[in-house]
Amino acid sequence: MLKLALPLLAATATGAARADDALANCRGIAEAMPRLACYDAIGAAPAAAPAAATAARTVAPPPVAAARGAEQGFGLQPKPAPADADAIELTIAGAFDGWRADDRIAMSNGQVWQVIDGSSGVTRSMTDAKVTIRRGALGAFFLEIPGSNRSPKVRRLR
Prior knowledge:
By secondary structure, the chain is an alpha+beta fold. It has two domains: 2-73, no CATH class; 87-156, no CATH class. It has helices spanning 2-27, 32-44, 50-57, 64-73; strands at residues 87-91, 95-99, 104-106, 112-115, 121-127, 130-135, 141-144, 153-156. It has a six-stranded antiparallel beta sheet, with no helix packed on it. Strands 2-5 form a two-stranded antiparallel sheet. The longest helix has 26 residues, at 2-27.
């Protein structure tokens, strides 16, 4: 019984080492699609043909410059695409003379924005006032109202 278990144990240890090597090879691939194909090949490889699967997964390690670029960008929020506007100009539908916390402000194009920062402000009475909604830091939006030196933080509801 011991004679039969010893070769089986050695084969299992060798298989585990090959699997660890295969995973390490896949982790070293910088591009997403080749890396995914590498992981797929590990899962699809039959246990009887580990040499063929290892040959298919062998990929050159990524260049050092690419690895440094990935480290420098790690954890940063992606920048908005150039097509994303930093601000839009809208018209408030009807009369407007200020805002209070949680007010909903309807625009002439059908959008509805809500004041979310708990602020309040009074402006001169305006009809169909032209305003600007500007993108702020960390995904915030601010309503810039002509004649007011304050810009409430808003969130789009519709």
